[in-house]
Protein: Phosphonate ABC transporter, inner membrane subunit
Amino acid sequence: MTKDTTTSDGTAGSGAIDDADGSGVPNRIAEQFENIKRTRRRRALGWTGLLAFLAFATLQAFAATELLNPDARLETFTESLTGFFPITNYFGVIPFLDFGQYIQFIRQENLLYDPEIGRLLFQFPPNPTDIYVFFFQELGIFQIFGEAGITLAMGFVGTVLGFPFALVFGTLGSERVTPFPFNFIFRGTMSFIRAIPAIIWTLIFIPFLGLGPASAAIAIAFDTIGNLGRLFVDELEEIEDGPIEAMRTTGASKPQIVFFGMLSQVRTAFIAWTLYIFEINVRIGVTVGVIGAGGLGYVLTSQQNLLRFTEMMATLLAIFLLIISVELFSQRLRSRLRSDDVEMSIWELVTGFPRRMADSMLK
Structure:
């Protein structure tokens, strides 16, 4: 129903008002607007409740970790820094961080280089007999790097031993290869392996192999099976169906489809993930070394037990140099796998970092 109205200038007009038998458009708009406002209020209340819960849980967590304990020695943190960072006053006035103490300890404990092994290789004029001894009797490719070489070897052996099992379990764990629910036998195995940290696997293998790099390397291999195999499964789940269907139409067998239709699509990704896991395994090698498995981790915990914090900081510096070197090497190999990247040598990668950083900041 419409109602005629008269404007101030005497002209007639009509205004639409809603009644019971009308179209009800204005009422529906108002109702929708009210629903939007109610939804926003509910969301605001929900976010407020969530933030309040997180604040309450954070307070509880601080209490559980004893950070709210008044007896906590947080006030001595600044004083303790001098133990990690020795300061030398040059000319009796200018304070500088004394890196010489770090370098002296690194050389004394052969953290990054073992001169007894290195002299077989680095001598002039070269001695063919010593070079033969270095490569085939002393097997010194890793030992030349001292304690860092032991840590690096643990990560390398763990990756090499774990890769084939991760490839098998990761391939058979994919539903594209093994039908449900049989694929969960392999997925469940990898989940069980991932549920146990590598440091616990090391403790499990100590009764069999003793406390040393051997048990740590096998533990890292087990950890690699669980982590790398899971990454392989995820990659196989995302492959294209076109090549697989094309091979099926040609009468290819199931193994041929798996090897040439599936694995060929993820070959580059598998190599990249393996290099990434190798980086992680070197870090795990440091971690398991803390419980006595050897390498830089063992040196670190030994100095910590002796309260020699300067030597402990020197070991941390050696760990940093090892990890960053492994990452640079891995990044270099991964860049080779990407054809669209401009190839750079390791020297260019390191020396060109300041220029690339400056170019990135100016963009």
User: Anything to note?
Assistant: The two ends are 64 Å apart (CA to CA). Residues 244 and 260 are 9 Å apart (CA to CA). The chain has 17 helices and four strands.
